[in-house]
């Protein structure tokens, strides 16, 4: 136990944290699905278009380490969804509801390169590996107002894949150790491709 405590303390020491950073932000996703089977969902004779569905804003977190003033390594994570729905009225009190969803989790590791223009402004680029882990669900139910809904069909599948990632952006130091980062990132696997505009804040130790 004493040895484990010493290891934990050493990892949390200022020396171990030197040249590392953590951050979080938001991103606007424009996701395209990889296979025709995931782009549309066929359920109870109704076709739902997931490919054409909007992808909402999502959050992301990241952490990295700088080996020198230019080169570093960064880990990132984000999670976003696409939804498609259709409702067919039966009568004044009930309707048929069709729904499909893809929930996609993205984990990445990338080499980063930073070029400093001046004391506050830098350009940054990264190239790395990305893993997509996706869950697909489709459902068909009778929605009854002021009554009990009836679930008729529920389908759940999953898929995952490795691929590549690249990004370019700018870093602005607003205060000592506090940066604002604006980036464009593209990630692609056989599951999905995603073009994202990202705005983040980070803290350097």
Could you describe the 3D structure shown?
Mean pLDDT is 83; it is low at 7-11. A hairpin with a 4-residue loop joins strand 6 and strand 7 (121-144). The protein has one domain: Porin (Beta Barrel), CATH 2.40.160. The protein is mainly β. Helix content is 9%, strand content 73%. The protein has helices at 2-11, 14-17, 36-39; strands spanning 20-33, 40-43, 46-49, 57-66, 71-91, 94-116, 121-144, 150-175, 178-188, 192-204. The strands form two sheets. The chain has an eight-stranded antiparallel barrel. Strands 2-3 form a two-stranded antiparallel ribbon. The two termini are 28 Å apart.
In which range does the helix fraction lie? under 10%
Which class of secondary structure composition applies to the elements? mainly beta
Largest sheet entry: 8 strands, antiparallel, barrel
Q: What's the number of structural domains?
A: 1
Provide the CATH architecture. Beta Barrel
Provide a count of the helices: 3
Q: Average pLDDT, to the nearest integer?
A: 83
What's the Cα radius of gyration?
22 Å
Distance between the termini: 28 Å
Number of strands: 10
Strand order of the largest sheet: 1-4-5-6-7-8-9-10
Low-confidence stretches: 7-11
The CATH class turns out to be Mainly Beta
CATH fold label: Porin
Pick out its properties.
205 residues; mainly beta; 8-stranded antiparallel β-barrel
Topology, element by element:
Layout (H helix, E strand, L loop, with lengths): L1 H10 L2 H4 L2 E14 L2 H4 E4 L2 E4 L7 E10 L4 E21 L2 E23 L4 E24 L5 E26 L2 E11 L3 E13 L1
């Amino acid at each position: 136990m004493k040895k484990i405590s010493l290891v934990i303390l050493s990892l949390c020491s200022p020396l171990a944290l030197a040249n590392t950073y953590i951050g979080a932000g938001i991103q606007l996703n424009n996701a395209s699905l990889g296979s025709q089977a995931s782009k549309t969902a066929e359920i109870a004779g109704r076709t739902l278009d997931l490919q054409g569905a909007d992808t909402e804003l999502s959050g992301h977190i990241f952490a990295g380490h700088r080996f020198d003033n230019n080169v570093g390594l960064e880990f990132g994570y984000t999670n976003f969804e696409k939804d498609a729905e259709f409702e067919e009225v039966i009568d004044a009190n009930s309707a048929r509801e069709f729904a499909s969803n893809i929930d996609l989790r993205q984990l990445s590791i990338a080499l980063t390169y930073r070029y400093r223009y001046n004391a506050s402004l830098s350009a940054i680029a990264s190239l790395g590996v990305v893993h997509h882990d996706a869950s697909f669900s489709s459902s068909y139910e009778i929605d009854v107002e002021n009554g009990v809904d009836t679930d008729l069909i529920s389908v759940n599948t999953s898929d995952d894949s490795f691929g590549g990632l690249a990004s370019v952006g700018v870093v602005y130091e607003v205060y000592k150790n506090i940066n604002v980062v604006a980036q464009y990132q593209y990630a692609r696997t056989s599951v999905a491709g995603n073009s994202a505009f990202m705005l983040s804040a980070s803290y350097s130790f």
